[in-house]
Amino acid sequence: MIPENKKEAVIYALQTAFGTSEIDEMRQLHAGLSTAMVLRIVVRGKSYLLRIITRTDAISAPTLEYACMQAAADTGIAPKVWYTNLDERIAITDFVDAKPFPLEKARTRMPALLKRLHALPPFPFRINYLESMEGLIQKFQAAKSVPFHITDELFRIYNRIKTVYPRDGSEMVACHNDLKPENTLFDGERLWLVDWEAAFLNDRYLDLAIAANFLVKNEADEQQYLQTYFGGDVSEYQHARFFLMRQLLHLFYFITFILFGKKPEDADLKKPIPPFFSYHDGIWHGDITFADMDSRMQYALVHMEQFRKNAKLKRFEEALEIVARGKN
Question: Who has the most CB within 10 Å: 42, 248, 270, 326?
Fold first, then answer.
């Protein structure tokens, strides 16, 4: 199961971390879209997570990943780190035996944990999220995988957000950036964040928006969620900026899953699109995965439809105006 070229390095890792190279049990975990090899191993009766980064391209950044993971582990946000090796791209951490995480509980536990994460010393800068989106949009437009009459509307909406959304860096904090259910593990008592591959310095509202796809379904949910995060009253500016970041995220997911989910000629834009929140409930409870290309394409269209729907709301115009005015 362990790649032949990594066996010696894994033996050394086990010896260094635990004083033995004997593994009682080993099982590969397949959740998520990461290219890393993730294994649950049992050593001397205790479970651990062995993660081997298999990519060697410029996108993979184990130095940054391990530094962010260690900082989070030191604060009790991520599981304990037992071993890392940058050269071999190997890490061993505690294994979290995940239990069902009720949405009502998650709606307060998640923003409370994000508040702690965002209070850490700033993570290193990696990419500018909005500039990265510009690059994705250019790649998407060049692919011509979606009819112009659809994308033209989407990018007109995007340009209105881009014009007002701040780029001054004032809300840049230590971010996880990939808060999908398989990376937010509840052990029955504590909530843990795992898989720090995408972590870097970023806009705090992105982490909030990612988790909100699953947790925030109406105004009451949003009020509770943001009050927990900000520790009290939430300003109209904070509500507005949160709302606009959610729209940017819808577009980002649409573009990303179209680009990397399926061949353009296989895209079927006429299939029924499931409701946004019921679809995310399915992901949260593990009933929907992205193991096949069809599900990834459907997820892109779910976000596209929600982006278009939200842009027609009165709140969209109000949010643009509020954020354009700024905090004061």
Answer: 248
State whether 163 and 126 are in the same domain. yes
pLDDT at site 112? 98
Segment 101-130 shows an average pLDDT of: 95
Note down the domain range covering 289: 103-325
Residue 36: predicted pLDDT: 84
> 205 and 83, same structural domain?
no
Burial of 130 (0-12, 13-18, 19+ CB in 10 A): middle
Q: Say whether pLDDT at 232 is over 70.
A: yes
* Alpha-carbon torsion, ordered 223, 228, 230, 234, to 10 deg: 20
Per-position b or e across 8-34, b if 16+ CB within 10 A of its CB: ebbeebbeebbeeeebeeeeeeebbeb
Q: Which of 179, 181, 188 is nearest to 114 (CA)?
A: 179
Quick count: other Cβ atoms within 10 Å of Cβ 35? 12
Tell me how many degrees the CA angle 271-275-280 measures, rounded to the nearest 5: 115
Whether 264 has a pLDDT exceeding 50, the answer reads no
pLDDT for 19 beyond 90? yes
Residues 85 and 130 in one domain: no
